[in-house]
Amino acid sequence: MTSPLLPTYARADVVFETGEGVWLVARDGQRYLDLGSGIGVNALGYNHPGLLAALGAQGGKLWHISNLFRNPQAERLAQRLVDASFADTVFFTNSGAEALECAIKTARKYHAANGHPERFRLVTFEGAFHGRTLATIAAGGQQKYLEGFGPKVEGFDQVPFGDWDALAAAIGPETAGILIEPVQGEGGIRAVPPQDLRRLRQIADDNGLLLVLDEVQCGIGRTGKLFAHEWAGVTPDIVAIAKGIGGGFPLGASLATREASKGMTLGTHGTTFGGNPLAAAVGNAVLDEILAPGFLEGVQEKAGLFRQRLAELKDAFPDVFEDVRGEGLMLGLKLKVPNTEFVKAALARRLVVIAAGDNVVRLLPPLIIGEAEIGEAVAGLGEVAQTFRAQTLQAEPDAGKADERQAG
User: Fold this and answer.
1) Which of 96, 124, 101, 85 has the alpha carbon at shortest distance from 40?
2) What are the pLDDT digits (tens) for 334-357?
3) Helices (DSSP H) in 194-294: which residue ranges?
4) Contact 296, 317 (CB under 8 A)
5) Which of 20, 166, 273, 390 yields a CA-CA distance of 20 to 30 A from 280?
6) SS3 of 279, please?
7) HSE on the CB side for 351, CA within 13 Å?
8) Is 196 exposed, middle or buried (0-12, 13-18, 19+ CB in 10 A)?
9) If you write DSSP's letter for every residue of 154-211 in order, what string do you get?
10) What is the per-residue pLDDT across 54-92, written as a single tens digit (0 to 9) for each?
């Protein structure tokens, strides 16, 4: 049967019908341990009672009223994000790409408001992923996403990850800011060292630039703090978030200081659906859990356990795993076998994992994962690794026989 969906995804032939906690249940009744969270979205897992209650309560009142009127749910969510962060203002969106679009516009408008409209360029980094709009694929700079869509949107200067000389050379009179993910997701779970993030803050200050962070994947508790940049102790100017803040409901936001957002005045930006009552109610329910006493500390503890067990797995299968990387429950396994094949083998073992760049498999479990489920995850990953080891061992004698035939 031909699907009416645009064929831009290589979808696995599995249909999930329900879920509970960190488990997904397919149409055939098989249970899958979810180590992907819908690409970092389902921070509280499936059928979370708090999210269900919030959705039901608001769903019986108002779903949508437009941003032409006051929205108490959105005002409350924005105030809570401000109180828990560096920010003074919040603009709600439906997705991470839209949050990045707002962040980019905010950075450009800041300089225009200061009398320097020529300062519109952002320095970005190789391996980055900032979304799928025309501007955000230009910001990410990956050719596979740019191909065929016409001229690249102007205003982005990409430099190698960690190349300070290239960064210095890229900064000029038209530069408005620096845009970076504290932990690259799509790029292969590459974390920016805390000292490097602090250095970027200093470079921005020295050059009159804004430091713009993409925390769409690494924010909202994923690394064990509400925002990943907190580990470095830096204060950004603008931060884009999404994914986890909605717990599965489409929701994103661009957070900024009062100074950085000074150019975003009446009529300069807008959205039809962003932060509507239904989305904001769910976002508030997510924060009820994430900001609850002990929750983030629990994420840190579970992340430490998971990483330790993965390190043991790497040592047990050095022919399959090259490295363990990441922060908190945003972990990556750098492989010596094709990551796409590993993802398929894991799915056959009823484990959901996600491929990333640099031949990495991403592990982004719901933040509510427990110790027992971490144990099951590691055991399952070990079984998958064993299948690749068996294939290697089987191939080696065949290769030896071929050598003997050639010698004869």
Assistant:
1) 96
2) 999 999 999 999 999 999 999 999
3) 194-206, 277-290
4) no
5) 20
6) helix
7) 28
8) middle
9) SSEEEE-TT-HHHHHHH--TTEEEEEE-SEESTTTSEEPPHHHHHHHHHHHHHTT-EE
10) 999 999 999 999 999 999 999 999 999 999 999 999 999
